[in-house]
Design a protein that fits this description.
This protein has 160 residues and is of the alpha+beta class. The chain folds into two domains: 67 residues, no CATH class; 83 residues, RNA polymerase II/Efflux pump adaptor protein, barrel-sandwich hybrid domain (OB fold (Dihydrolipoamide Acetyltransferase, E2P)), CATH 2.40.50. It has three helices and eleven strands; from the N terminus they run αβββααββββββββ. Strands 4-11-9-6 form a four-stranded antiparallel β-sheet, with no helix packed on it.
Length: 160
């Protein structure tokens, strides 16, 4: 059985390294730690062959929100008119078509409806994500090769 301190260490590692999911198995006990995005609290799921260990880790999931504010994302006041380009699926974010190519968009890039902004890999299929509005990219919210969730904001665009 994994003890609560080890689970807390895993949660701290997830937050520090911007990980979205960690799964471990120790004999008949399996621990899955998952958060939908980098700003969300960590959810803990523990399964075992006997029901007693399942109830022990629950306080850990409640303690996780205290660790999340360690990396707050400042939001400038003039962001109110920015439009999000969000992920239409779960996958891995790629800023460019290959490691040697420049990113599709960076801060300051003008985009138009149909402009490719990034690639999301899902189940070994590479999907181009296109802008649906015209404007200027103000912020890139994810890092290259970072896993993303459905609906997670990828870019903030100032509409024209």
């Amino acid at each position: 059985m994994l003890d609560v301190d080890k689970i807390r260490q895993l949660i701290e590692m997830m937050v520090a390294n911007d990980l979205v999911e960690v799964s471990l198995r120790d004999g008949d006990v399996e621990v899955n730690l998952r958060r939908p995005n980098a700003n969300a609290p960590v959810t803990t799921v523990v399964t075992a062959s006997n029901p007693a260990p399942v109830a022990q880790p629950m306080p850990v999931a409640q303690a996780a929100p205290a660790a999340a504010p360690a990396t707050p994302e400042p939001a400038p006041a003039d962001d109110a008119d920015l439009v999000e380009i969000t992920s239409p699926m779960v996958g891995t974010f790629y800023a460019a078509s290959d490691p040697e190519s420049p990113p599709f968009v960076t801060v300051g890039t003008e985009v138009h409806p149909g402009s490719v902004t990034c690639i999301l890999e899902a189940m070994k299929v590479f999907n181009e994500i296109k802008a649906e509005i015209a404007g200027r990219v103000e912020r890139v919210l994810v890092k290259n090769a970072q896993p993303v969730e459905y609906g997670q904001p990828l870019f903030l665009v100032r509409p024209q």
